[in-house]
Amino acid sequence: MSPHTFPLGPPPYPLGEPLVRREGREKVTGAARYAAEHTPPGCAYGWPVAAGIPRGRVAAVDTAEALALPGMITVLTHENAPRLAATEDPTLSVLQEDRVPHRGWYVALAVADTLETARAAAEAVRVTYETDDGADVLLRADHPRLYEPEEVNGGYPGTRERGDFEGAFAAAPVTVDATYHVPPLHNHPMEPHASTAHWSEGHLTVYDSNQGATKACEDLAALFKLDKSEITVVSEHVGGGFGSKGTPRPQVVLAVMAARHTGRPVKVSVPRREMPAVVGHRAPTIQRVRLGAGNDGVITALSHESATHTSTVTEFVEQAAVPARVMYASPNSRTVHRVVPLDVPTPSWMRAPGECPGMYALESAMDELAVQLGIDPIELRMRNEPDTEPDSDRAFSSRHLMGCLRDGAERFGWSPRDPRPGVRREGDLLLGTGVAASTYPVLIVGSDAEAHADRDGTFRIRVNATDIGTGARTVLAQIAAGALMAPEDRVRIEIGNSDLPPAMLAGGSAGTGSWGWVVHKACTALRARLRDHVGPLPADGFTVAADTRQENSERSPYARHSFGATFAEVQVDTVTGEIRVRRLTGVFATGRILNPRTARSQFIGGMTMGLGMALTEGSEMDPEFGGFAGCDLAGYHVPACADAPRIEAYWVEEEDPHLNPMGSKGIGEIGIVGTAAAVTNAVWHATGVRLRDIPLTPDKVLPHL
Amino acid sequence: MKPFGYLRATSVEEAVRAAEGRPGARFLGGGTNLVDLMKLGVERPGLLIDVTRLPLDHIEELPDGGLRIGAMVSNSALAAAAPVRERYAVLSQAVLSGASGQLRNTATTGGNLLQRTRCLYFQDVSKPCNKREPGTGCPAREGIHRDLAVLGHSPHCVATQPSDMAVALAALDATVHLHGPDGDRSVPVTEFHRLPGDHPEQDTVIRPGELITAVQLPPADRGARSRYRKARDRASFAFALASVAAVLDVRDGVVRRAALAFGGLAHRPWRARAAEEVLRDAPATEDTFARAAEAELAAAEPLRDNGFKVPLARNLAVAVLTELAAPPARG
After folding, report:
1. Which of A151, A110, A148, A114 lies closest to A127 in space, CA to CA?
2. Which of A152, A625, A668, B257 could be disulfide-bonded to A317 (CB atoms 3.0-4.6 Å)?
């Protein structure tokens, strides 16, 4: 499994080449079909009814008016919907009981011949509620119901302590004690969550927009008490997910329910405005970071405490304090999570859960410490570079944070840098630069794949990977071609279908590593078989199946993480408080880059999303009515082109033999991780004002200028 | 589904006749606001009268040196028109600072003036709103209102008019031409939009069945310079937190004429008469400009979370007036 044996270079061994996306033409010409664009004959349309109260229960549902509409088929409610088996994800238990845990929870589904009728009927469904008083939707650091969970997202322990933090912090000559606020954030992929469900001759076919059709198939089988062989989930093209499609969402359950209930194919799409309430969000965090250091800048005490919310439906704890267990050496450390169940929509994964908000806080605190010490922020990080992973004492499989910082500093033109804040002016503009580190764990999950050699000299690879816009097909073809030592254009890739060999979902930056490994294994075995074979192939060719469960059954003896550094230059308008990023430079150490074109897209996409987190994106709960106050893209400001003028992504050469045959780490998430802190640190450098409540919109900035 | 009638009018007369006596009728221009609100269930017209094919898509030079802008002139065409760019820079800048290229290609001059005020509660039919359903209350006053009004609001409504174009038109003393069942009439653009008062459901003074046919600009003040500046959360495609449109004529260091209007602060474009009073014949200094802006904004009554708009508007006004008063850059 040494990466050195992996053929590299131009075709026919195209690993590392900037191949264009295989399905790019289909997508830009509109030929690629997404979940809602499949319309089986006789297809009906479902439109959900969202609860209009902060919390309570459904007392009665009057469907008479809705059902009287011409073309109406049925209205499903908790009273007549098919019964589901319980699964580990209670957000999928839709229409099973009268409880309304939060505003926007689905309480009914109108099903009709046309989308328009379904929608009109959904509006005509009269729901009477019993509203509980005292709905509680606001996270506070001193909320009396906060508790320390055993485990946080990712399976990490909620609390970790080493040494004596309090003693060391009290004794430290230089300290930082700061609290940072991250608001709820929304994934808002371009393609809303959508499903088309179709029963035919006892078999269920579902076209679903998700990040993993294997998981969707498993969950649907469990919910509807079916065998997995009775279900095919097709997710051929997916218009983004950013974590919000990692596991099934309610619309697929509603579509299958309605299809079963009506005996017709049924299509359900989540309206954009309803997405925040039902597809998950990044939970808000209130993070207190305390750092104690000697005058030499060596950290002796590190505490990262994160308070967050979850819903009353299920416990999801954003693991914001986890990256502090990886980043910097400190003999005394405590990392603590607290969570409070509120009457809010259920939070879930959003690009780099944990690392993204956690590193915003930690890297802001590091910048504050550098300022206190009068040490350059890059130098401070160098002085606290650990020899082993601080929390586990495991050796790093590779760690090139310093290389990223050095390389980035050179490319960005970091030095010479006047560390004084508020001294660079251009007319009304104040200018500043900032830097932050990033990290993201290497996750690999055992998967299955098949490699088939056809008589005509072509190959077919079958693996249930998902392309959520990343270029998965393309990179898998490159990996397969490399392992087969065959030209890439002779390799066909079949993904996005649960009938294919089961594989890891497209999440946790684990897709390419997990799929690529098993594809490599199957292809390597197929090549050996072809090498040993004499004469023409049999009529149906050769097929080799492989799985990588064994290889991934045990925890690696190495701490495996990606690292990176992001540099930002900002301008702050002293007239308006408007902040604009002038340029961002990211340098990443993520093992071998398998396709520079698609990798670059992932990095700059993540950085752009981080820019939005720093400056424009943020949501809030409505304390009076519950639910998120604003639910459309007119108010939830993702960066537009004009906000992202010059974003550059680079990577350092990194050889790591402890990963997978390709020597690659995941790249989908690390781009977002350090960006927000880089931008907000640059805002401090520009203005001398430390603002710890993102996004830094003019209302928050102007009063300090 | 919610059926509605659709009529493509071929003449102004036909359009107005079709609307007569039908309170559920709406004129359809670019539809960039109306269709959005229909999707949200806020607008439920019984009849859409498509006026986009009416022969109102020209910009006409008037004998007095002014311009007559047909109501169907697209926002893109308006911003790009040479006489607008050359003589009414503030208008071109304002239009270009609004929405996105795609929306400006579709949106019309008349429709831009008639876009509804914005507020989260107005757009969410599951919540009360006096504008949408008179008498149900205004949750924004105590609720989410960072983006809402600081001037001229009432206990019944704190929404803001989002049009950038209208702010420039207010500073330019434009006139709105209307044609209705009772014939033609004209309204100064500064009086076209209303303050909410006791009737927040009425955004403008337009009467039932009246159609905007044109917007007329008076001759440009040849000695004056003009500018629009807008502060917003995002570099493009975001509504104004506050904006200012200014026309300024300075001779020998003294303000000869000044027209100033604010956007993003009120239920209508806010023509700053009190500020203009301070500016008239005063020395064109930053101190004057600050006093002028403060004179206008003294009337502000910010809500809990939108107090930042007052210094923001002040800063914008001072910066824009200072820039306009400075000698033009060479080259």
Report:
1. A110
2. A152
Question: What is the C-alpha separation between A36 and A252, in angstroms, rounded?
Answer: 11
3-state SS assignment for residue A336: strand
CB A438 within 8 A of CB A359: yes
pLDDT tens for A440-499 read 999 999 999 999 999 999 999 999 999 999 999 999 999 999 999 999 999 999 999 999
d(CA B158, CA B138): 8
Pick the CATH number of B225-325 from 3.40.1190.10, 3.20.20.140, 1.10.10.10, 3.30.390.50: 3.30.390.50
- Determine, for residues B235 and A625 on separate chains, whether the beta-carbon distance falls below 8 Å: no
**What phi and psi, each to the nearest 5 degrees, are found at residue A374?**
70, 30
The first and second tokens of residue A700, run together, are 């928050």
Fold of A151-185+281-442+557-704: Aldehyde Oxidoreductase; domain 4 (3.30.365)
CATH number of A3-23+445-547: 3.30.365.10
List the single residue in A with minimal CA-CA distance to B236: A642
In this complex, do B319 and A630 lie within 8 Å of one another by their Cβ atoms? Answer: no
| Residue type present at position B19 | A
Q: How far apart are CA A562 and CA A443, in angstroms?
A: 10
- pLDDT at position B1 is 61
Residues 580-599 of chain A with CB under 8 A from chain B are 580
Regions of chain A with pLDDT less than 70: 1-13
Here the ipTM equals 0.97
With a threshold of 0.90, does the pTM exceed it? yes
- In the numeric block, which tokens belong to residue A475? 């990179």
Say if CB A587 and CB A411 are below 8 A apart. yes
What ranges make up the beta strands (E) of A368-428?
396-398, 425-426
Buried b (16+ CB within 10 A) or exposed e, B63-72: eeebbbbbbb
Asked if the Cβ–Cβ distance from A637 to B315 is below 8 Å, we say no
User: Are A551 and A499 a contacting pair, CB within 8 Å?
Assistant: no
Residue A23 neighbours by CB under 8 Å, 6+ apart? A32, A237, A467, A473
Identify residue B320 by its one-letter amino acid code: V
Eight-state DSSP code of residue A488: G
Put simply, whether B236 touches A (Cβ < 8 Å) is: yes
Q: Which of B115, B233, B236 to mutate to test the interface with A (most CBs of A within 10 A)?
A: B233
- Which segments of B53-159 are extended strands (E)? 59-61, 67-70
Instruction: Give CATH for domain A43-133+190-240+245-278.
Output: 3.30.365.10
Task: Parse chain B into domains and list their residue ranges.
Answer: 225-325
* Distance (Å, whole) CA A139 – CA A183: 10
- What secondary structure does DSSP assign to A190-255, as a single string? SSPPEEEEEEETTEEEEEE--S-HHHHHHHHHHHTT--GGGEEEE-S-----TTTTSS--HHHHHH
